[in-house]
Amino acid sequence: MKNETVFICAECGKQLLKWMGRCPGCGQWNTIGEKQVSVSKGGGPARVVSPDEQNDLMCLSEVQSLHEPRLNTGIHELDRVLGGGVVRRSVILVGGDPGIGKTTLLMQALGLLSRKGEKVLYVSGEESFEQLKLRADRLGLAGNGFLVLVENELETILDKVSQAAPSVMVLDSVQSVFSRASDSHPGSPMQIREVAGRLLQTTKRGSAGCFIVGHVTKDGDLAGPKLLEHMVDAVLYFEGERGHPYRILRAVKNRFGSVSEIGVFEMTDAGLSEVANPSELFLSERPRDASGSAVTALVEGTRPILAEVQALVTGPVPGQGRRTCIGIDAQRLALIIAVMEKKLGLVLGDQNIFLNAVGGIRAIEPATDLAIAAAMLSSFLDKSIPSGTLVFGEIGLAGEIRSVSRASARLHEASRLGYTRIVGPVSNLDQFPKSREVVGIGISRIRELGAALFE
């Protein structure tokens, strides 16, 4: 083995023999950096080699299955998103806007684990011991097994982790830590890749679960090379609107669970509190007898959630009207508008249309199509949808109303919250509740929507 200099793209990991302004692999500009690696004397392409890399072949049937129990953090919403708890030797990346509550959530999780007798470690590269103590006092955290470390150098951090041998650790944040093995500055793509790779390697050899906090860019993406998200076992995004107390934790990658689960929290003076019933939360401030409001049923992972879709249709205006949507897919909105114009004879091209999925929820699954159309029709006609009405269904390009999956779970949640009027696909009619108190209205074409809603 000998050391040689290679040039590596921070975005796609492609290795080159010389520096180039644009990576030929991914086409990105200014992403290629210099790195010293160990290569074989026999020639061939250079590659990064671990000091104790094992190249033995094994038969898959000989590999021991992993049956270790997960660590429950004590925060049910977090455990739900993780798939049942923290898997040992897993690396979990948590991203979100500044001040959204990432540090608060992870410190609360470590505090609850320490109360159970687990040894936990919180490594901060951005705050002092005194700042961490102030936050812990505000959150009511205590425990002899709760260790904290303020350090930016990766080698020192790994040495302390080896000494402490925690069950779960948190690194806050990966952009603030640097390694002596790389000459680039902290936060650069090369440093982030080096720090994450070494931390991943150490975690897989040990027995601890590891959370990594990552900053996000102004576009909402995790800062650093995209390779970072490929390296870790799970990627969680913490979302929420500024000035709004509610937060949503969403998994976008999870090797040990579903990527459709969400956790809902409320930010309070004493930290984050779990919201066990998101449906009641999202509908708690719904206006009564107001046009442009429709209630639909979503399914996030295994959880059915009722959410409100609001629409405001105003006009006519000169030229093409504006289209603004929050929490709703703009492409599906364009499709629904086109079908409504064609099949209902409405003129919406010169109307300003504003849509909002209330509470920061994402109403992007096809089952919300009919509710979006209902909200727009209600606002356009200035007629309110009767109270207690739930609307769900997918709209096809021919104006047909298609069935949706897991209709029974959606309807059970609606029945539990007292919704007695269901407007949905006629093909799902057999799954509607068999009760005298519940009126089920099945429709097969979008032209039947107005009569089903208002008559």
TrEMBL record:
GO biological process: recombinational repair
SMART domains according to UniProt: AAA
Keyword annotations: ATP-binding, DNA damage, DNA repair, DNA-binding, Hydrolase, Metal-binding, Nucleotide-binding, Stress response, Zinc, Zinc-finger
PANTHER family on file: DNA REPAIR PROTEIN RADA (PTHR32472), DNA REPAIR PROTEIN RADA-LIKE PROTEIN (PTHR32472:SF10)
Gene field: radA
Binding site for ATP: G96, D97, P98, G99, I100, G101, K102, T103
PROSITE patterns with a match to the protein in the record: RECA_2
Function comment: Plays a role in repairing double-strand DNA breaks, probably involving stabilizing or processing branched DNA or blocked replication forks.
Keyword DNA repair: yes
Notes on the domains: The middle region has homology to RecA with ATPase motifs including the RadA KNRFG motif, while the C-terminus is homologous to Lon protease.
Family: Belongs to the RecA family. RadA subfamily.
Motif RadA KNRFG motif boundaries: 253-257
HAMAP family reported in the protein's UniProt record: RadA_bact (MF_01498)
Source organism (scientific name): Desulfomonile tiedjei (strain ATCC 49306 / DSM 6799 / DCB-1)
Protein name as it appears in the record: DNA repair protein RadA
